[in-house]
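BACKBONE STRUCTURE TOKENS:
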Amino acid sequence: MELGRRKAPVKDIDENDLEVHGPKTAAAGMKAVMVSLDRGVSQGGVSRTVRSMLRVNQRGGFDCPGCAWPESITGARKPAEFCENGAKAIAEENTLRTVTPDFWAAHSIEELAGKTEYWLGNQGRITEPVVIREGETHYSPISWTDAFELIGERIRATTPDRCIFYTSGRTANEAAFMYQLFARSIGTNNLPDCSNMCHESSGSALNPTIGIGKGTVSLEDMHHAELIFVVGQNPGTNHPRMLSALAECRQNGGKVVAVNPLPEAGLLKFKDPQDPGNLARGGAQIADEFLQIKVGGDLALMQALGHLLLEEDRRLPGSVVDEEFIKDQTSGFEAYREARSGIDWDETEKATGLSRLDITRVAGLLAKSKATIFCWALGVTQQPHSVNTLREIINLLLLQGNFGKPGAGACPVRGHSNVQGDRTMGVWEKPAEWLLAAIDGEFGITSPRAHGVDATETLEAFEMDEVDVFVSMGGNFALACSDTEALEAGMKRAGLTVHVSTKPNRSHVVHGRTSLILPTLGRTDKDDKHPSGAQFLSVEDSMSVVHSTQGRLEPVSEHLLSEPVIIARMAQATLGEDHPVDWKAMAEDYDVIRDHISRVVPGFENFNERIRRKNGFVLPNPPRDTRSFATDISKARFSVSPLEYLQAPDGHLILQTMRSHDQYNTTFYGLDDRYRGISNGRRVILVNPEDLEQLGFADREMVDVISTFNGTERRADKFRLVSYPTARGCAAAYFPEANVLVHRELVARESNTPGYKAMTVRFVRHISPEEN
């Protein structure tokens, strides 16, 4: 253990060490293998690394704590069923570096506040619960019993509406179900989650139009599609195993269209390290067409594609439009056809940055395809008009009947490994009445009916001093949310913050007046301290497959508790032993939790029997299974949206946030954004060289960045400009460093998702103190 502690980095990020090289044109390859092995061995040693790699995403193994991309449920799985960033996530969890009471005693909050997330996260796994009270300068140990008593005391001392329960997407189904039950037993629907900040726009668009907030395809559909659109997504870094599916689609004769403001390596070529032939050929092409769109121009593109499809069908009646499907299964088509009957090509080219010729060529591919999938991620969900953009994507799918047939459908590609499962389990601030009624009937409680706060509204509640207790089940809320400075100031004024965590992060440093850190087991850890023996959990992947996950590694500390046990003990300490819910029974045997779920959540009937099947089971999906749509009119809906796009005034650019290749959300594995050619620094702004020249700045110049929204400004100092082949008029910076620039009111309409891809910014030359 002491050896592991000595490996923790002493040196923090020094932006003066920034190195910039040319961007790569292919993803993965043997370099990815070498990086994966190096990160694993350096953190956890050879034995732990090998044992975990052999079990990750395998039947009977554990689910990767990284992304939610699915595994095959019909065929054989590869020996290495993980990607480079999945290996990094596992290495972070397997680490033998430990954060003991000595660490907290040696580092004051003032000191830790000056450290970056990279330094904090690389210190290792937290070994026992700690507390810091008002006026104290250091965290110090606290017993589990005292920690739970403190939580219960603080919750009982306030009102339910002043308690907030945040959830990260890594929380497994069983823990998520208990967590939402705990909150509703207290009397609140204040259940914000990470989905509020990423795919909430997807659910807001999908539910009213096709009657389900999830994707409608399987992994096998990806393999057999005739055409796949990958829109606003960087699979090479964020979902690398998706590249195998795209490559297989092309091998089967399908085509791929990539739509993105940056020419990401994973959109261009994939070097499959498990395919010697692929490596010998220099990799496999991924995108047949790459549309380098302006940030925020996707709505205009989808409207243009709809116009061209209708024009082609008018030229050759019945060649494109699935008239029978539209007549039998949809509503609103005539209004849509009228809205798309004309187009202003000058405006469309301005909005998209694409030529009419390029758009027309891609529309030709779409018109010919009889089985099309649209995939998308945060590049289209984090703008004011995101919901309308996604509705236009659904319009295109409906137009050609691309639901309920092989190789076709909608595919929002989720990030966290169980963010979809958490929502299925009821973690949502706007629960449906049927769910609340089912919970009440199962447990004999009365759930609150008033809607709670989402992530953005939680930020506002902190700012208004309306939070007495904030509990975070995983995650790093302080860095994940927008308007960073206002959020951190509000969090420091809260009465009690509770963080169920595995490693130190920024949220632990900008804590409430009293703060608890409760260390928990990870996906790879054994969970065997129960009367009924070792336990397993379950997760739901991006394509509605539910399967088990069970770690087998010895935890780094005997003081760690599982999330279900932590939730149960919080509930017992808060609600008392006479509460109608038997929390103790659920904590002791997770089968008890699953039995409750089977009677509350549709699709989970016989949960305990079905989860023990080799491949788990697939949840019902009416658009996919029966070509039916569970909307309020029992039909799918066409939508009509006005043309809208992001426009920057003179001297400004539209800024989007992005992850580096050495990062997963707010976790920094390292400082090498290898595919973009950037290393050893993170405070960079990628800008097209022509825009740099036009704005009067030079490559590598140091600037302060100022965002403008509704007449107010946000500022972030000391960013380095980097000349890069971005779309003209657009720029890109890393998340979460640029979150401080996102005004809390800059959100997607309807979903309230922060506008991380919609900032209007300008640059001013940075003046160092020596120059003043």
Confidence is low (pLDDT under 50) at residues 1-6. The radius of gyration is 25 Å. Residues 155 and 469 are 7 Å apart (CA to CA).
